[in-house]
Amino acid sequence: MSTEADLQAWTGASGRDWDQLCQAYVWNLCDVFGSAPVTYPDALAAYYATPIEGWDVNVPAGACAFFDIGAYGHVGWQVDTGDAMGSGRVSVFWGINAGVASITDYIARTGASFLGWGWTNGVNSLPYTPAGSIPPPDDESEDDMPNGYYAKGDRAADVYWIDQATGKRRPVPKGELTAAQSYNNATGGKTGAGYVATMSQADFDAIPVQADQ
Predict the structure, then answer these.
(1) Confidence band for 156, pLDDT divided at 50, 70 and 90
(2) What residue ranges do the domains of the chain occupy?
(3) 4-118, what's its fold?
């Protein structure tokens, strides 16, 4: 789990100029502090691959915020004091053209439109601990203790374990994806794009995991 102090310290230590590299900045944060299996070419590509949870500019800490601006869009990761982003239009600089700005300040400065927020950057994730919260014990993690299943579409990138208490997600391996598709078919579901299904971990554990596709 990362904190705002962790992200700020890494940004300053990186020594990199993040101007015009907002998606690369977010990807690096995920790579260092979470999981970053996919390198999206730009912020809009990551947006289209992200399950959007809300459209209110009051984005919760730990969520990924997307904006429509220019040809490639813009993206940042919400922390306690604002949206951490690679941009020269921030209010507080953590490094070279990177730092934090509120969603409304960034929109006012750039004329961008807010596209919404999700808990991931496509399939990339950044576990985050807001200030004042209590992190889980060391032997309990979201990856080790999923308590539900969320299947959307029929590609590995669209399927997640989901913690039903927090809404946090992680990608599901291909072998588990095959089992999820079998479950959907057995219960009269479908695996086409846009289909959403949930199952308990007990139901999931009862399904023989098939070979990777």
Answers:
(1) very low
(2) 4-118, 149-205
(3) endopeptidase fold (from Nostoc punctiforme) (3.90.1720)
This prediction's pTM: 0.65
Q: What is the mean pLDDT of residues 48-63?
A: 95
Closest CA to 64 of 115, 104, 109: 115
pLDDT band at 134 (very low <50, low <70, confident <90, very high): low
- Indicate whether 113 pLDDT > 60: yes
Beta bridge partners of residue 162, listed in sequence order: 169
Contact 172, 156 (CB under 8 A): yes
50's tokens: 């992200």
CA gap 72, 99 in Å, rounded: 20
Structure-token pair, residue 205: 């554990």
- Distance, in Å, from the CA atom of 60 to the CA atom of 67, rounded to the nearest integer, reads 16
Question: Is the CB of residue 77 less than 8 Å from the CB of residue 95?
Answer: no
The C-alpha atoms of residue 122 and residue 155 are separated, in whole angstroms, by: 13
Q: How many helices and strands (H and E) does the chain possess?
A: 6, 10
